């Protein structure tokens, strides 16, 4: 009887070992299959995100939009605080030369001028020029560096940028496709485009307050598109900070690849002209 039991044990051991090996291989195979499936899903998602952005580029004018040298916008700007009008209303003209030069003339006669070149900014009045306040300059640079133009001209060209398709959502009663771009510094831009026209409806980005360390969300929404020189242009632009409207702009006129004023982005030339 003892010999029989020992023989049975010897037979059971290799069978049990083989069964355990089979289970282990099956588990490894399942993990590998899940990994392959996950990688395939990730690639498919990135392709969808890129396709949505490409549709937006085409809707905005394609290669002509991508190769614009400068823009001119003229309209009226209104300030808001906690979503309520501040009464701060005025005319403005803005010239922007890609990739990083901007001139903003405030008032009908342009007696206050703001110039941003690279990461430096100046404010020019009849008293002369002075450096822009750091908080105003930082706010402008964040908007510029997270613009729709920056997303497609800079972020999309960087192989380290991750594109994510977030699905569909509603933006001001419009069905929108949402895409998130994440760069190598873990900074991100969220762009929402109209599901039918593919034009940008909204962009948003987050940043951390350098003093209080809390995270903030800024956004711009676009409406009332007009085709100017072959480029769809939003004539209604609203800005938000943590969900509250801070600014609204209505355009009177827009132009592309225009003749810029002499010394347009030279603060000294602007100061000499304003002081006359």
Overview of this protein structure:
By secondary structure, the protein is an alpha+beta fold. The chain has one domain (62-274): outer membrane lipoprotein receptor (LolB), chain A. Helix content is 33%, strand content 44%. It has five helices and 13 strands. The chain has helices at residues 2-59, 63-66, 134-145, 148-155, 267-274; strands at residues 70-81, 84-97, 101-106, 112-117, 120-125, 128-131, 162-171, 174-182, 188-194, 200-208, 215-228, 231-241, 244-256. A 13-stranded antiparallel β-sheet has the order 6-5-4-3-2-1-13-12-11-10-9-8-7, with helices on both faces. Strand 10 (200-208) and strand 11 (215-228) form a beta hairpin. It is globular, with a radius of gyration of 28 Å. The model is unreliable at 1-13 (pLDDT under 50).
Indicate the topology.
Elements: H1 2-59, H2 63-66, E1 70-81, E2 84-97, E3 101-106, E4 112-117, E5 120-125, E6 128-131, H3 134-145, H4 148-155, E7 162-171, E8 174-182, E9 188-194, E10 200-208, E11 215-228, E12 231-241, E13 244-256, H5 267-274
Antiparallel strand pairs: 1-2, 1-13, 2-3, 3-4, 4-5, 5-6, 7-8, 8-9, 9-10, 10-11, 11-12, 12-13
Q: Strand count, sense and closure of the main sheet?
A: 13 strands, antiparallel
Number of helices: 5
> What is the terminal separation in angstroms?
118 Å
At CATH level 2, the architecture is Clam
Major sheet strand order? 6-5-4-3-2-1-13-12-11-10-9-8-7
What is the share of helical residues? 25-40%
Unreliable segments (pLDDT under 50, ≥5 consecutive)?
A: 1-13
Q: Tell me the overall shape.
A: globular
Write down the secondary-structure element order: HHEEEEEEHHEEEEEEEH
Report mean pLDDT, rounded to a whole number: 89
Name of the level-1 CATH class: Mainly Beta
Relevant CATH superfamily? Lipoprotein localisation LolA/LolB/LppX
The count of strands amounts to 13
Taken as a percent bin, the fraction of beta residues is: 35-45%
How many whole angstroms does the radius of gyration measure?
A: 28 Å
Number of domains: 1
